Amino acid sequence: MQPLIQLKNLEKCVPTKAGPLCVLRKITLDVQDGEFMTIMGPSGAGKSTLLSILGLYDHAWTGEYLLDGQAVHSMTPKERSVLNKRHVGFVFQQFHLLDDLTVAENLDLPLSYRDIKKSERQAMVADTLDHFGIVAKKDLYPSQLSGGQQQLVAVARAIIAKPKLLLADEPTGNLHSEQGKEIMELFAKLNREGTTIIQVTHSETHAACSQRIIKLRDGWMEK
Question: How many domains does the chain have?
Answer without folding.
Answer: 1
